[in-house]
Specification:
6-stranded mixed beta sheet; alpha+beta; Nucleotidyltransferase, domain 5; Actin, Chain A, domain 4; 5-stranded mixed beta sheet
């Protein structure tokens, strides 16, 4: 009887799988991207969910929910269920994944896609299991996990199958992933929970201390995008920032410069540079020699910070290249893995099953 029920379950999953396209998901702290087999990256939305306070009732997901951040009435909360690259709210992440799966499949209910999900290289077995369980409960028939730096390297077209040293730096919203890859495997990798979010926080703290000005998360991100930099600019910029005066409690406007924002970002940038140097020190000599010729490749939305490639190049003495579309690199990598079965077997991460006494 048990064997029959297993066969029946497999048969149902197979039939449901015929109605769906396989998907690759870059489940990011700030943004979630979805790659659909045969179509490419079809969705790029903020990892934000709006729910009714005191319940798990979802009101909005993605772009619509992000517009609510910091602007919701008392009965609505806009939250980000991913923190530092891992799930901080299991139930809300599951709801978000279910929404994205249905959206890319045009609201069809009977869809059971096979999904490849990119995860930070430094997460624990418990965190891996949480990601896999969330995807399965959201409607996936099979879930494969791949480390973000491997996915990014595949997505940008690095020759990771060759016996050559490839170094990739993926600066995301919650984590920065650094990895040296050769022969489809990670020779050395390091993941730190510092990324675009910590840069936003650094800007908020700087304005608090310097101008007694309180701004929100969305405003700090806008400042970073418009005038943020990691290296001196040829022509420095300035912009007006609106917020609340912490002393008077009234709305206030100040003008800030790109030099000030660069100063505010020093702490997170130093932490990223330190980890890059540690990674280079731990790289075997033969592979380190390859990096002199091939340099370092950067991916992830955080790599778009002006001058970050110049700063890393100056500190390491190596050429640094930002890939053409750094935001979609990881999602494209999951798509390649879906399309080429030899990758699926070589680069996906096994998840240990829980042992019960």
């Amino acid at each position: 009887m048990e064997k029959f029920s297993q066969l029946l379950k497999k048969g149902i999953n197979y039939i449901l799988g015929l109605f769906s396209n396989d998907m690759g998901i870059d489940l990011g702290t700030a943004t979630t991207l979805v790659f659909v087999k045969g179509e490419g990256v079809v969705l790029c939305e903020p990892s934000v969910v709006a729910i009714e306070r005191g319940t798990s009732h979802v009101l909005a997901v993605g772009e619509e929910a992000k517009r609510m951040l910091g602007r919701t009435p008392g009965n609505i909360i806009a939250i980000r269920p991913m923190k530092d690259g891992v799930i901080s709210d299991f139930e809300i992440t599951e709801a978000m994944l279910r929404y994205f799966i249905k959206k890319v499949h045009h609201r069809k209910v009977l869809v059971r896609p096979r999904i490849v999900i990119a995860i930070p290289s430094g997460i624990t077995e418990v965190e891996k299991r949480a990601v896999k369980d969330s995807a399965e409960r959201a409607g996936a028939r099979d879930v494969f996990l791949i480390e973000e730096p491997i996915a990014a390297a595949i997505g940008v077209g690095l020759p990771i199958q060759e016996p050559i040293g490839n170094m990739i730096i993926d600066v995301g919203g919650g984590t920065t992933e650094i990895a040296v890859i050769s022969l489809c495997g990670t020779v050395f990798s390091k993941s730190i929970r510092i990324g675009g979010d910590e840069m936003n926080e650094a800007i908020i703290e700087y304005l608090k201390k310097t101008y007694n000005l309180m701004i929100g998360e969305r405003s700090s991100e806008e400042i970073k995008i418009k005038i943020g930099s990691a290296y001196p600019l040829e022509e420095e910029m300035s912009m007006e920032v609106k917020g609340r005066d912490l002393v008077a409690g009234l709305p206030k406007t100040v003008t800030i410069t790109s030099e000030e924002i660069r100063e505010s970002l020093q702490e997170p940038l130093r932490a990223i540079l330190e980890v890059i140097k540690i990674s280079l020190e731990r790289t075997p000599p033969e592979l380190a020699a390859d990096l002199i010729d091939h340099g370092i490749v950067m991916a992830g939305g955080g790599s778009l910070l002006r001058g970050l490639d110049k700063l890393i190049s100056e500190e390491t003495g190596l050429p640094v290249h930002i890939t053409d579309d750094p935001v979609t690199a990881v999602a494209n990598g999951t798509g390649v893995v879906l399309s080429e079965i030899q990758y699926l077997k070589k680069v996906t991460v096994p998840v240990k099953t829980e042992v019960r006494n």
